Amino acid sequence: MSTEKVMNLDGRNVSFQQGETVLEVARREETFVPTLCWDERLDPYGSCRLCVVEVEGRRIPASSCTLEAEEGMVVRTDSEKLRRMQATLVEMVLSENPGDECPRCRDIGTCEVHELAEQFDVGRERFLGDISNASKEDSNPFLLRDYDRCISCYRCVRICAEVEGDYAITMTGRGWNKGIATAFGGPLMGSECTLCGQCIYTCPTGALADKKMVGQGSIPGKVEETRSICPYCGTGCSINLHARDGKMIGVTPALDGPVNEGALCVKGQFGFDFVNSDDRLTMPLVRKDGQLTPVSWDEALDYTAQRFKSIRAEHGPKAFYAIASGRAPGEGAYMLQKFTRAVMNSNQVDNCSRA
Amino acid sequence: MSNSIPEIEDCPMMLCVGTNMTECHPIIALRVKKAVRKGAKLFVVDPRKIPLAELADGHLQIQLGSDVALFNAMAKVIIDEDLHDKEYVEQRTEGFEELKKHLESFTLEYAEKISGVPKELIRECAIEYGSAERAGIYYTLGITEHICGVSNVQSLCNLALITGNLGKRSAGVNPLRGQNNIQGAGDAGALPNNYPGFQDVTSAESRKKFEKAWGVPLDPDKGITKIAALDHAVDGRIKAMWICGENTLVTDPDVKHTTKALESLDFFVVQDMFLTDTAQKAHVVFPAAAFTEVDGFFTNSDRRIQRIRKASDPPGEAKPDWWIIAEVAKRMESGVHFDYDSSSEVFDELASVSPIYAGLDYDRIDSGELHWPVPDHDHPGTPVLHEGVFLNGKGKLQLLDYVPPSENPDDEYPFYLTTGRRLPTYHTNTMTGRSEGFRILVPNEWLEIHPRDAEKLGFEDGDWARISSRRGDVTTRVAITRTSPSGTVFMSFAFPEETLTNNITNPDVDPITETPEFKVAAVAVERIEAPAGFSAEPALQADPAIEDPRDG
């Protein structure tokens, strides 16, 4: 018996699997359903109410992220009424989120709230009033926390629990006093938080931001994003490298990375700027009168080849030894063993796996 | 790894041995946490109370280096309780009767005495492992960095073999590799005994193949390991060395010996991003491009070949590693082909000579979905190794004996020292230490010591200590914590400029892999006055030293 079932979405019959939510079906069918509290890595939460849809036979709209699709269900996602409700919800959320100062939009790429504001063409004027004036103090070096912008979607709390399994932060209070806090309300450092930064990249607003990226947006030049792999342990997490004018400015997790599925640890997320370090080597060096001295590539390469040649001639192939890096790309390791075997004529090569 | 990382979350019984996963492989640990949330059993074998142990159904807090005694006893329980997979043992293994006989002396009482783990807990762990439908073993350097590292691994393989846990999904024997491309470096042939793709250099057939590919006669003898090479440098047999991207002086045990080795060389070339301690000893230093500045591949722990791509420009005249080596090779006028236009051409050549990469090129590794072996261009890759049959015929069960660590506490050096990493400091800190913010998280090295030992030695949190072994001594601050058991102290090796931990580690090696026993050294610890300029404020701690009733 097939588990394939059929429902009606905006006048079209579409098939789905038992257990799928209406939102999942709609997203697969490339139907626009706005969300703020939803992240495909997390359990559905149903708090932002933006994903409301009309279901035939139901009196009031339902949130599609928590609604399981049923055989024969008739759903509308695009009525006038729904759009009005969604626009109002975005307006309310916006009241605490001034667009022109949003660190996320300015420096990293549009945040979800301001993207929706543009889509619904709404501003924050209508509900402008008090803001909660939550504390912005946190002495950690990586995460900017500005809970004035928090819209209580709790994606940060949920990713910390459901994906990272750290349970470092939780929701506290009600109304104006609502907040996100560590176990005893202290700063992130010293709590269970590992500073992996994954709350930043699920946050749909500018309430959380990457301190390394903040401030970068005001510098002119196009930011290029390049898919790569984390250079630390042997897990092989997929990352996006952000660079401007050929200089690294940040890392974001690749949500479709086959190993990490959008998760990173503190090293992968924030430990990239060693590449910009002032003490990077920029020229070949050759020891002259006891001092390592900058020289041209030609001089360094010629000298090296000539020294290897004479040592091989004088002491034989086994007087040479090469150690390949377990950190650098594999093409280098292939070249170094080929050099050792085919040019120096020995198998005197290893990598750094033993010690 | 015999199995892929995503499979872990469907594993119903995980045995994690010598792997501080949440700190050293945090994203693999996410899969373990997920499995636990789905109801899986987790047993952690580790001398320290690592964070993973908090999630476990059982923490077997073993004495350093007692793994073989423990796992042999577990194998005996599994056989005695008739939990072994008879069909699998019959069809896919050899030496079962010999193993059964060999295990007779590995009673629970014996294992408890050697390992310090209560025998009831050993038995429980064995029964859970033996009766699980699928069980996965995950280990890291806590198993291999011992003089008996190979035996330790084999004792784990015995467990997997007698229970039929090699060759199926969400099971297997899975070493988690510590470096992004350490698997790839071995795959590419940077090993003294193997051509690319683990083809034996002493096999005439393999040699002929590579002689044909490269057009020159090749050496039929295998080379020596890096550990032996440093000895040969000291005694003058090795005159020239080329080290790419390794801070050998700091990472190897017994720094005095390594220093002597590198200083004895007639000609020493280092290729690196930074003028590391090792590079400072060199005659020639080549500036290497960083991972964000080149195209290439990394192969991870689960044999997944993935693309890295150029995103930023190298500083000054720094160049990709492959380019530098090719340019030196060309100038050697050997006639061997070293004329490459791109890293992709180098990769294609590797794929052409390595059967496990034969089906790969940059297009096929673009999405990072393939695990080797990938023998041809239509092959879907191999997330699970050894399905159906082992490459070399039957899985040989090994008869292993417990060998104590090469150094044990005595009156002069009364503590065990074990070493490892901490979450925010990677290795010798050349990368994390140069990335902004990490020094705030971990400002310095510290010695982790149990409150009972601290009290005996008169330590307060944040005091300074001198730690000495038969090789030398270092000084650092003290953090009083119950992570390490009484009698065992812990340090990382991330602050070589202030606390050169490998001054005191143990250089004795496993006879087969020649991997040093970084995990066990005998040391003495004494309180010293804070050096001038340092206040006595407490060191940043690994965990709060709260009272733990289980600790006695």
How many structural units, i.e. domains of chain A? 4
Distance between the termini of chain B: 38 Å
List unreliable stretches of 5+ residues of chain A. Answer: none
Work out the largest interface and the residue count of each chain: A-B, 111 and 148 residues
Low-pLDDT segments, ≥5 res of chain B:
541-552
* Annotation field: number of helices of chain A: 8
Oligomer: heterodimer
Q: Largest beta sheet of chain B, briefly?
A: 6 strands, mixed
Name given to the CATH architecture of the largest domain in chain B: 3-Layer(aba) Sandwich
User: From the helix content, strand content and strand pairing of chain A, which structural class follows?
Assistant: alpha+beta
- In total, the number of domains of chain B comes to 4
Question: Helix count of chain B, per DSSP?
Answer: 19
- Structural class of chain B, by secondary structure, is alpha/beta
Radius of gyration of chain B: 24 Å
Task: Return the CATH topology of the largest domain in chain B.
Answer: Dimethylsulfoxide Reductase, domain 2
Instruction: List how many beta strands of chain A DSSP finds.
Output: 16
Level of helix content of chain B? Answer: 25-40%
Q: Which CATH class of the largest domain in chain B is shown?
A: Alpha Beta
Rg of chain A (CA only):
27 Å
Terminal Cα span of chain A: 57 Å
Provide structural commentary.
The complex is a heterodimer of chains A (355) and B (552). With 355 residues, chain A is α+β, with helices and mostly antiparallel strands. Chain A has four domains: 4-78, Roll (Ubiquitin-like (UB roll)), CATH 3.10.20.740; 101-110 and 123-210, Alpha-Beta Plaits, CATH 3.30.70; 223-276, ADC-like domains (N-terminal domain of TfIIb, Single Sheet), CATH 2.20.25; 285-351, Rossmann fold (3-Layer(aba) Sandwich), CATH 3.40.50. Chain A has eight helices and 16 strands. In chain A, the strands form six sheets. A five-stranded mixed sheet of chain A has the order 2-1-5-3-4, covered by helices on one side. Chain A has a three-stranded antiparallel sheet with strand order 10-11-12. The longest helix of chain A has 19 residues, at 297-315. Chain B has 552 residues and is of the alpha/beta class. Chain B folds into four domains: 5-176, Dimethylsulfoxide Reductase, domain 2, CATH 3.40.228.10; 178-221 and 288-373, Rossmann fold; 224-278, no CATH class; 415-545, Beta Barrel (Barwin-like endoglucanases). In chain B, 29% of the residues lie in helices and 16% in strands. Chain B has helices at 21-24, 26-37, 51-54, 67-80, 86-92, 96-102, 108-115, 119-131, 141-144, 149-162, 182-187, 204-214, 226-234, 248-251, 255-264, 321-331, 343-353, 438-441, 451-457; strands spanning 13-17, 41-45, 58-60, 93-94, 136-139, 172-175, 194-195, 199-200, 240-244, 267-272, 284-287, 296-299, 305-308, 395-396, 415-419, 446-449, 464-468, 473-480, 488-491, 521-528. In chain B, the strands form six sheets. Chain B has a six-stranded mixed sheet with strand order 16-18-17-20-15-19. A five-stranded parallel sheet of chain B has the order 3-2-1-5-6, sandwiched between helices. Chain B is globular. The model of chain B is unreliable at 541-552 (pLDDT under 50). The chains are: A alpha+beta (355), B alpha/beta (552). At the A-B interface, β10, β11, α6, β13 and α7 of A face α2, α11, α13, β9 and β10 of B. β13 of chain A pairs antiparallel with β11 (284-287) of chain B, so a sheet runs across the interface.
